[in-house]
Amino acid sequence: MSSTLTAQEIQRFQDEGYLIMPDLLSPVDVDRVFTEITAVMAQRPDVPKDLIQYEPCMRDKDHTQTNELHVRKLYRMARHLTFFRELARRPALLETARDLLGPQVALAQTMLLMKPPEISGPKVWHQDNGYFALRPPHCFGFWIACDPATEANGCMHVVPGSHHGGLQPHAGPGDEFGLVDPPQNDILPVPLQPGDGLLFHCELFHYTPANRTPQRRRALQYHYMASDVVKTPNQFPWEPELDFETPESASS
Ligand SMILES: O=C(O)CCC(=O)C(=O)O
Q: How far, in Å, from the CA of 80 to the mean position of ligand 1?
């Protein structure tokens, strides 16, 4: 198996619950992400419902009049769009997933988090496994900045080591489903340049504040899970987007 992480990086991820990974996407990749967003929006008002989510204030509007700045997120892109499906197989992502989870992995979920200026709110403190409900929690996400991500426009904030406490109680409707007892201390903002990624454990506490700038803050999020973990019942129905052959069976 090829390996992208060193033993020290794997140890740091296990201890802290996150790692910064520079240059996961090239400038050309980032431009292609933006082109793909524009192509999706060109389909409106007939964008597949499971590919797009508008900001709450735009959900009941006539979508012939909406534009990219009204979109909260695209999701399930690997199911709908070839570019995002192929990205999931890039060694920097897939081999990192295997370094952390073992040879048999699946792509749990993809999202493009658009965080437009003015109308977007914060994403409340949560653990992703509050949504996924995977046992054991053998799952992590890449959060990859496409625009510069800063404290002012809503970069990721994490609490290092918080994944060691296990899954904590969550409550709230829909997108506001979050930690009942959000953290007050030890909060670390993670500003990133376009193309750079944050790799984070699915039980790490994290949140993003509202975007207080006139520019948007787009980011790509890919979650990988070990294929054999069990999804326990909860309120969020979802299916993994892709399963990958093991490296052994792919080469035989
Ligand atoms: O990018 C964001 O604003 C939040 C991403 C996030 O934490 C999530 O979707 O679980």
A: 20
